[in-house]
Amino acid sequence: MPKLILGFVGQAGCGKGTAADILREKYKAGYYRFSAILGDLLTRLSLEKTRDNLIKISEMVRQGFGEDVLSYAIQNDSVHAKEDIVVIDGIRRLEDIAALEPLPNFKLVAISVPAELRYERMKGRGEKADETTMTWEKFLENEQRSTEITIPAVMERASVTLSNAGTQEEFLSAVDGMMKHFGF
């Protein structure tokens, strides 16, 4: 079992993936994403990995098998990881941490960024098929979707909150400071 399991929560475009990349490169962390499970299902069904499709498949899986079903899948992956540090990206709902919070080596980490900066970063990264053409109005509409409105409540449960409103160097320093705090 890993010595440290870090679960990242934050609104779309806050830098969860960037933080995970830092930890993977610098600390050799294992990496698991809630959206990877859902993306695998969409691929198998020959459906495009758009934000809309990810939300639909998430809602269907949760309604059919329980709101916490993805939490148990991620928990199983993370406790069997060979790495000493595991990063879980994309926690969005309280049910997502149901199987993780009881683990003694689990730490929930919130990443905060102003909405305008998150919007610009999302357009630039184009991670989802519809991000590069997203308007500000669509971004604000997406903030009210079922996958997004629960994030602030989960962020309140975090033991650490990192700001990613500055430079990449400042964020790297914040991640390093967090790891030092956790004894790495």
Strand-helix topology:
Layout: E1 4-9, H1 16-27, E2 30-33, H2 34-44, H3 51-65, H4 69-79, E3 85-91, E4 106-112, H5 115-125, H6 136-142, H7 151-155, E5 160-163, H8 168-181
Parallel strand pairs: 1-3, 1-4, 2-3, 4-5
Helix pairs in contact: 2-3
Characterise this structure.
- With 184 residues, this protein is α/β, with parallel strands linked by helices.
- Helices cover 47% and strands 15% of the residues.
- It has a 5-stranded parallel sheet, sandwiched between helices.
- It is globular, with a radius of gyration of 16 Å.
- The chain has 8 helices and 5 strands, in the order E-H-E-H-H-H-E-E-H-H-H-E-H.
- Helix 2 crosses helix 3.
- It has a single domain (4-181), classed as P-loop containing nucleotide triphosphate hydrolases (Rossmann fold, 3-Layer(aba) Sandwich), CATH 3.40.50.
- The mean pLDDT is 93.
